[in-house]
Amino acid sequence: xxxxxxxxxxxxxxxxxxxxxxxxxxxxxxxxxxxxxxxxxxxxxxxxxxxxxxxxxxxxxxxxxxxxxxxxxxxxxxxxxxxxxxxxxxxxxxxxxxxxxxxxxxxxxxxxxxxxxxxxxxxxxxxxxxxxxxxxxxxxxxxxxxxxxxxxxxxxxxxxxxxxxxxxxxxxxxxxxxxxxxxxxxxxxxxxxxxxxxxxxxxxxxxxxxxxxxxxxxxxxxxxxxxxxxxxxxxxxxxxxxxxxxxxxxxxxxxxxxxxxxxxxxxxxxxxxxxxxxxxxxxxxxxxxxxxxxxxxxxxxxxxxxxxxxxxxxxxxxxxxxxxxxxxxxxxxxxxxxxxxxxxxxxxxxxxxxxxxxxxxxxxxxxxxxxxxxxxxxxxxxxxxxxxxxxxxxxxxxxxxxxxxxxxxxxxxxxxxxxxxxxxxxxxxxxxxxxxxxxxxxxxxxxxxxxxxxxxxxxxxxxxxxxxxxxxxxxxxxxxxxxxxxxxxxxxxxxxxxxxxx
Length: 502
Description:
Layout: E1 2-4, E2 41-46, H1 62-67, E3 76-78, E4 84-86, E5 89-94, E6 100-105, H2 119-131, E7 144-151, E8 154-159, H3 166-169, E9 196-202, E10 206-211, E11 224-229, H4 233-241, E12 247-248, H5 258-261, E13 266-281, H6 291-299, H7 303-311, H8 340-346, E14 354-360, H9 363-377, E15 382-388, H10 392-400, E16 406-411, H11 417-420, H12 432-443, H13 446-462, E17 466-479, E18 482-483, E19 500-501
Parallel strand pairs: 2-11, 2-12, 14-15
Antiparallel strand pairs: 1-5, 3-4, 5-6, 6-8, 7-8, 9-10, 10-11, 12-17, 13-16, 13-17, 18-19
Helix pairs in contact: 6-8, 7-9, 12-13
């Protein structure tokens, strides 16, 4: 048996892009070193309020970014370096055939509804993904043949075949542990074992989390955290300047950073994420069934000019669906280099074709969409832009119904290449060769996994299943005395439990 007993490392999650909302009573102006709600409370400014708090039935990154690691724990989690470390599972072993996982669980965790956490809850949570979840991410549990409680503190999970990806997926939202008696109102009243408990939600404004004083682990510093939402990036920055909030967790106007870097009251954190900003193609549309058209569209876009224009040059050009923090990253920007003349010639047969670019009302998508429209029209296409309210209208129109030609969205879920590019997802991308490479990557040894994932990423790029505009940076601005902020944002969670005041 191969044994894993890694040291417990607190997860430095990250808030990039859409997160959840709720009720805020922020104070007016404050002096440096004080908090809008007092020293024991914190107000974080974010964007893109979700439509629900139930990520078992609602897609999108917004919900797990605020709830995972804060309200919900998993058996395991990731640290900032991407290593899988213990959470509700103290340790685990894997059988020689790589099919049976035995987890030893903590014995002092309780749900916020008062029920104790046991292996029966863990088995219930894993099995429930297969029976009650309705989002596409539920497929991560298809490989599970059986999950059962051996004792109150020991869980055994048997896979139908070896899977390199299953334990990693357990660090994401599909690995969240639920109370057997607390799943009736997940959309409005989530129940978990985390350091915070759900407080209140003022739709269209903010969400409040309260410290869970019965938490089984290290208690968080702040007794209340308010996540306040702004659709306008200028208003978001001004809220920090006026002391309404303490943290800009999702910088949307990086060109305005100088007003904070030159002010001793604030700190600016800059790192990386796994948030690929994707120019999505609806591969079920006739025009996008032509590989030459897809490749030409990629070559029509001057990615450096786009990044400089719509995100102040912040971020990284990658050319694929793999960020540099993944083991199988390769710089694939050379697969489809900018070549306006070549793109114009290749698109001559479809010149004048109108493509509908349906954008979510997110600042980066709006600004980058204008650049994409301009550059594609320079090579003979016509582009109309529709703004769709995010998340509700975009999720319904684009994500659920695939009623679009192109869109722009940052995919922040970790290691999501196969999840995003398949026939059932909104990209409608159907490629048996890609499916085979992903299957070989999941079932092989570590070397085979890396090799096949590299091949899968290159295949996706060469087939121009989409265009990858750039990788979002992790840009966070905060009060100078706030500690515990993440440098990198490579998980689905924004871990509030690490934040404190010096």
